[in-house]
Amino acid sequence: MTIRRGLAIIVLATSYATGCRPPDDQRTDSVDPVAAMQERENWDPAMAARLDSGNAAIRADSFEVAQRLFTAVTEMAPDVAAGWFGLHLAELGLGRPDEAVAALERARAIAAGASLIHPTAVDTLP
Length: 126
Description:
single chain, 126 residues, globular
């Protein structure tokens, strides 16, 4: 390997490692964490527990469990976007894109900015 080629590889690798690459995430500074926590304080504790359990089920790829939990959340608090957004994720995991889109539309009707960080082809975008 020539010195130039070796130097070019080092420069490229260093550039990549130090942040000269596309961002891995979307902006999240549009969510006010203080306001979100204040809103959560007003939630029924049983509803918040189901929401948390649904989120844990999503992380564990237990989409049927998540779907039941998020459906319960939407019945208990139909005006809480997080329940509809969780239902959207569960329906996606179950391979039900039409139901997923319907749940996402309900979430967006409540919170216009509700969206996925890494959308897939079946997701509707703003």
